[in-house]
Amino acid sequence: MQAGGGPFRVKVDIESEYAAPPEQAMVEAWIRGTEIHDQQIVLTAHIQETTSANDDGSGCVSMLEIGRALSRLIKDGRIPRPRRDIRFWWVNELSSQPRYFRENPQEPARMLVDLNQDMVGARQSWGGRVQYASRLPWSLPHALDDVMESVLTLVRDGNTAYLTTRGTKLPVPYTREIVAVKGSREPFHAAMVPYYDSTDHHAFTPAHVGVPGTSLTNWPDEFIHATSDDLENVDATQLERNAIVVAGVALYFAGVGDEGAPALAAYVASRGASRIAADVATAVAGIAQAAPGGREAAYAAARNLVSQSYRKEAGALASVRRLSPSARGAAYVSEALDRLDAGRRRELEALAAAYRAITGRAPAEAAPSADEQALAEKVYAPVADLGAWQDAMEKIKPVEGLHSMMRFEVYNFADGKRTGLEVYQSVAAEALSAGAWYYGEVRPPDVREALERAVQAGAYTVREAR
Questions:
Q1: What is the CATH code for 27-255?
Q2: What pLDDT digit, counting tens, does each position of 33-60 carry?
Q3: How many helices (H) and strands (E) does the chain have?
Q4: How far is the C-alpha of 94 from the C-alpha of 199, rounded, in Å?
Q5: Shortest CA distance to 190 belongs to which of 213, 212, 164, 158?
Q6: CA–CA separation, 189 vs 170, rounded Å?
């Protein structure tokens, strides 16, 4: 070989095994709160990919720096110690947490939100990457969505160049510049998008756990799981921007109380109204774009979307009560929920009027399909034991044609209270709101098959609906 022969072909045999018994491990740190210890803010990043700089070395070091910086600021008296605990978890991706919750089923009830970081240091100009933040699934509405989007948008817009600053006294190119000493001056491409999984916040959001979770995750990433995911792939400026977003959201939830809850509730209600308006527009567009023979079905889907959108926003608004259960915030939430209900009735009436204007006739109720009728007759409930549920869920074969996120939502909405039809309606509305290009189409037979497979696997039980 040294003499220059070749090329050579090398065959490598690798023998490997898991240690017996298998173990899970994670590293944990705390910033202890002053008052509230059963509403923890949990920060996560996965540590097992030890050779990958961005995935997820970036999330791990960002979380460490957030903890270091906040601890120093508290020690120096520059910020007050938070009211709630902030908990830091370096984990095995989508693996440590399910095991922990299985062995400590009481712990999720002591957690308020999860903020995950996965691939947060990417040099965005390499491959056209965007820093996405996951919205919550519709089965788990919470004020977290609006707080996260508020802080993320502030950092994004403050680090994007706009023509309107030209010729003004505002700083250029960025009005609220965040740039690391050894980082770039690239813009910050970031957006909130409908729920996605693929990383550690997804371990918190199953209904059996029920902790609202979001993640910052850049995509696309042509270097993922490759030796090219090295330090040259990471930009200190993007790391700093993401760390500020997560630290800001964590500190807000760690400190908000009776005095801040009314403003949060009002903000969530206002943002919810804008999302409902977008869903109403989607509903009207669906009727207008449907073929004449399909407009009754489109109208049924439109009514369902509007109703489910209001239900979701009511859940997000109601989540503020946990932060302020008995003061002005709780009173405002009750008033705002009444306004939401009145708004739902008005929007459904307006939707019927739009249908009459588009079609020239009054809407008629579409007859249920055979699968819809069968779903209406059943109620599906998850087995109570988390470990048994986890084991059974691993046996379920996915239904082809049903997006994995919508399958996840089918099992979240099947809570032992909703009928199978109500589960289908909830998931179908979520998919319609996001768009067929994002989640695909949800069909009654697919939902029915997914639920029946869960029953066969032992993850759910089924009974006749009353």
A1: 3.40.630.10
A2: 999 999 999 999 999 998 899 999 999 9
A3: 13, 9
A4: 6
A5: 158
A6: 21
